[in-house]
Amino acid sequence: MTAKRVVLGVVAAFVVWLVALAVLAFAMAGRQERQTRERLAESLQATVTIGDSDLALVRGRMSIDRLAIRRDDVVGHLAIDVGSVRCELLPLGLALFDRGCTELVIREPRLEISTAALFRVKAPKRTPIHADRIVIDDAQLVFLPSAFAPNLGRIEISIDHAVAGPTVMRTPLSWLFALEELRARFALPAGITVQLDYRAGMLTVTGSLLGSSPVTLPVQLPVAASARDAQEEMKLLVDSAKDIAERVVAKRAEDWLRKKLIP
User: Fold this and answer.
1) SS3 assignment for 202-251
2) Strand 179-188 to 167-168 pairing
3) Does the structure show a pLDDT above 80 at 259?
4) Does the pLDDT value for residue 220 go beyond 80?
5) 234 near 176, Cβ under 8 Å?
6) What pLDDT is recorded for position 59?
7) How far apart are CA 102 and CA 56, in angstroms?
8) What is the signed CA dihedral for 122, 97, 177, 45, rounded to 10 degrees?
9) Which DSSP state fits 128?
10) Closest residue by Cα to residue 198 from 233, 161, 167
């Protein structure tokens, strides 16, 4: 009988805990949405709106729909729209003690930026969002001519699918440091297109400038921890992109010479 009472007591306590979590989630949902808006607005110095959000502490999930971020000032133009964001949390209320995302899924993000200076984000008072795994689907990124490479012109990047490992989101592009998988297309001026496929440390590049055969080479991503702040993160990413581009061109030239010199 004593054992039965203990079991019933444990079950009753568990049910009470679940009910309390449901009530608490309802009470916290508005505050969590407000804190998310404030965190993004503070770091990007922008106006942030959220269409809808939901917090489920029992299941362990927070979702945001129709996220919009806008900034237009003397520094430049920034527009970010995201169809949906889903943050998988620890279930059964454990997220109250650890608010990191076990998985962060971002669908239909759209970004347009006029200058890299807009990514010199203000250091937030709150700890940046951490995710153990990030999945991005159907992304469109537009970098206006003055953003990173003024001589190159407008750059459009379409990301079909991307997966990244553990990431601290200092900037909207922090996940690139932990990239594990990527399928993307670059559209450059004069109708030039480049297809990128990255997996397991190997990058394959195809495109009109590179001829009919793809270029494949190993890529070592920069380490985010070596950057002291968001501005240094962006510099690391830009420098890494330039280095990879130079290596791709050099590899294509090497392959071309080898074909010409070796019968």
Assistant:
1) EEEEEEHHHCCCCEEEECCCCCHHHCCCHHHHHHHHHHHHHHHHHHHHHH
2) unpaired
3) no
4) yes
5) no
6) 83
7) 14
8) -20
9) P
10) 161
pLDDT at 67: 95
Q: Give CA–CA dist 86/102, Å, rounded.
A: 10
| Residue 170: closest CA among 221, 237, 229, 107 | 229
* Residue reference for tokens 């400038």: 209
| Per-residue pLDDT tens digits for 163-213 | 999 998 888 888 999 999 999 998 877 677 889 999 989 999 988 776 668
> End-to-end alpha-carbon separation of the chain, Å?
89
Nearest to 83 by CA among 111, 57, 116, 47: 111
Q: What is the separation of C-alpha 148 from the centre of its chain, rounded to a whole number of angstroms?
A: 19
Domain ranges of the chain: 28-261
Instruction: Compute the Cα dihedral for 66, 71, 72, 78 and give only its sign.
Output: negative
Instruction: Please name which of 113, 82, 89 lies closest in space to residue 21, comparing C-alpha atoms.
Output: 89
| CB burial readout 160-185, b (16+ within 10 A) else e | eebbbeebbbbbbebbbbbbbebebe
For residue 58, give both structure tokens.
């029992």
Alpha helices in the chain (DSSP H): 2-44, 230-261
> Is the model more confident about 116 or about 13?
116
Contact 154, 142 (CB under 8 A): yes
Identify the H or E element spanning 54: strand 47-56
Residues belonging to the chain: 263
CA-closest candidate to residue 194, choices 137, 135, 249? 249
Q: What are phi and psi of 149, to 5 degrees?
A: -135, 80
Closest to 215 (Cα-Cα) out of 257, 185, 253: 253
